[in-house]
Amino acid sequence: KETPIQTCHDFEKVAKHRLPSYAWDYISGGEADTMARNRQNFALYSLRPRVLVDVSVIDTSCTLFGQACKIPFYLSSVAKGRLVTKEGERAFVRSAAKVKTSYLVPTVSSLPLKEVWSAAVEGQHLPFQFYLLNDEKQSFEALREALALGACAVVATVDSNAPRMGAFRASTGTSTGGVFPSPLLTWKRLAEVRNFLPAHIPLYLKGVQTAEDGVQAAQMGVRGIIVSNHGGRACGDAWGCLSALEDVAMGLRAAGWLGEGSTPSRTLELYYDSGVRSGRDAIKALCLGAQGIGLGRPYYWAAAYNGEEGIASLLDMLTAELQHAMAQAGANALGMLQPSLLSRAGNRPVPCAEVSPCLGSSGWKQQETEFHSKL
Known about the structure:
Layout: H1 8-18, H2 21-28, H3 32-41, E1 45-47, E2 62-64, E3 67-69, E4 73-75, H4 89-99, H5 113-118, E5 128-130, H6 136-149, E6 154-157, E7 168-169, E8 175-176, H7 187-196, E9 203-208, H8 211-219, E10 224-227, H9 241-254, E11 269-273, H10 279-288, E12 292-295, H11 297-329, E13 342-344, E14 350-351, H12 363-374
Parallel strand pairs: 4-12, 5-6, 6-9, 9-10, 10-11, 11-12
Antiparallel strand pairs: 1-13, 2-3, 7-8, 13-14
């Protein structure tokens, strides 16, 4: 008898039961220590709820990758979609359209890109995730094809270029196959990718995990950043990704690229993925500065449960959880979610607006001064 679906983890249990071992191992594989830190990080932050706010209607509408969406959750790029549904990436395109959100089409698609784009409905615009693989010619051929098909943005993955032998280590200890990008991707090569794109196509970076890299990305002119450690699949013994988000967001604010100190010409879009399993997880990332939340493994679990309908159910569930968390925190729109609605765990909880994850409660002004001195 299958588990009734009430939480994201229920989708996981069903998927583990239904999927063949090679598919499950590929999806669940990664660096166990980093994956654990991603989840543990959410417990380091708690809500500082505001009261006497009208929360009769909770608005989750937003803009993701330049497109108007109804919810801040989007389907991130995950390879080999036919591992979980016969329709593969077509099902993901249709699910995103049904819920009115975005789907990031992966370079390593199980279907030809033309078939993926053929599933889009009228008015649906799809961003394309770009890997600079060891076969650079093939990489740029895929990029050209995606642009010709109408990709609305390009998201370059930058966290996976360290040369590795073998494959991801799954939590079970088994070895699972992976695709490994070129170790030659650098800031200089990234600028070449940006110059390759038509002027109207924005470039985003996926995989930034430090304030230093966030500011450098902003300075080179990218439209946005996805703070991500590939769901724990990229770097072993890395810090938890939610702490990385706080670090990046504080650096960008101090340098004038995010928040009240930014200007229209110096405003960066900030996104988050890695480890989100509930609406309460999501509200913490949104409070820290993210405008969108990418999902990876959870929507593969949902697809294994019931294809595109399963994904739509997952997104509806997470949105309802997020709306409830927002109401409890005293926020009726995403724009009201601020760092001051969170505190960081400790003997005396400190509002997140006053503390750096690395420097402690006295480090904010020091960090701000240091960032401005580097510009």
